[in-house]
Amino acid sequence: MMASAEAPAVAAPVLAVRALDAFYGKAQALFGVTLDVAPGEVVALVGRNGAGKSTLLNSVMGLAAGRGEIALDGRRIDALPAHARARLGLGYVPEERRIFPDLTVRENLRVGSRGGAFDLEALLALFPNLREMLDRPGAQMSGGEQRMLALARTLAAGRRLVLLDEPSEGIAPIIVARLSEAVRAMKRQGVAVLLSEQNPRFVAAVADRALLLQQGRVIGQSPVAELSPLSEAVRRVLGI
Ligand code: ATP
Description:
By secondary structure, the protein is of the alpha/beta class. Helix content is 30%, strand content 26%. The strands form 2 sheets. It has a 6-stranded mixed β-sheet, sandwiched between helices. Helix 3 (105-112) runs parallel beside helix 5 (143-155). It binds adenosine-5'-triphosphate. Residues 24, 27, 29, 47, 49-55, 196 line the site of adenosine-5'-triphosphate. Adenosine-5'-triphosphate binds next to strand 2 and helix 1.
């Protein structure tokens, strides 16, 4: 497609997903999902277990079978393997944390930079509580701290968009608060975030917009500011 000379002055989306279907064998898990994420925008996928949130994140990362259009900064990525998408600036922090338990926090962050430019101070500005743990082995951190390290490690490579799967699940409230501060700081730096989340407080604390997923379809969306206190629609979708 040719770029138009009369493109509108609206910020182009970092992520544009169009008519995305996903499949596990013959079972269809996503149906025609369409969404945009703007630079520095935090979008939360909200829905019950099995609604398709993880599948959507996996599809964007290139880890699920499907069809439809996915573009990062205007460039089609849907035919690319996951590692090529990562090179273009897509980061992914899955529900199970991926850190190296035998490496220290500092070493984990360095590995995250994959040999590229690595600004430890900039990362510590986002995750200040990691500073006092720099020499601690990953295995000696709490689950929540490991999740924060996994997020910091993903950001060490410099990212345009980070996908976070259920970041607050199973984490102590104090760490959840730090995690939401880190997400807000990422946002201020212009990093866009697409996250799956079942914790309405976390959604309210970090997200600009919530997309409601039900049985593999986007059934609604709302600016988070208008969801507070939690709207009936969200309660219904979350089953709370
Ligand atoms: P959860 O929070 O439980 O992970 P979710 O909203 O992320 O829920 P998905 O995990 O994306 O939902 O699941 C969407 C649908 O796809 C569900 O019907 C689920 O059973 C199915 N599904 C997910 N993973 C697989 C798989 N590996 N094989 C077959 N079906 C799967």
